[in-house]
Amino acid sequence: MITIIPESPDNVAAFNATGEVTKEDFENVVFPHVKAKVDEFEELNYLLYLDTDPGNFTMGAWLQDAFLGLKNLTRWNRTAIVTDNEGVQNFTDIFSVLMPGEFKSFPKENLYNALYWCKNGNEVEA
């Protein structure tokens, strides 16, 4: 399931993924929220808090995720993937070279820092 993180900054489309993630999660939650943010801010700052194993994404969810990327290809600004899964962190860092905009992984304990970075491109100073 994907839900919107309500306490996220206005210019960030932030989501929490838990349990099984389906194509309906993208169609009913992610796409409308992302469209609203892109329409309002003309760019996409996106955060996904991955609180489930990537294996819990159905094939339809992966296809919708890819479609989201292609549909908004020129609008990507900053994307944070928040997870403790090292494979996903490494993939995110490699993927950042291939996509427009900035992509960055953050460990789960740094959710606040990830939201802050998505909002303005800076990290919270320690």
From TrEMBL:
<dbReference type="InterPro" id="IPR038396">
    <property type="entry name" value="SpoIIAA-like_sf"/>
</dbReference>
<dbReference type="InterPro" id="IPR036513">
    <property type="entry name" value="STAS_dom_sf"/>
</dbReference>
<dbReference type="InterPro" id="IPR021866">
    <property type="entry name" value="SpoIIAA-like"/>
</dbReference>
<protein>
    <recommendedName>
        <fullName>SpoIIAA-like protein</fullName>
    </recommendedName>
</protein>
<dbReference type="Pfam" id="PF11964">
    <property type="entry name" value="SpoIIAA-like"/>
</dbReference>
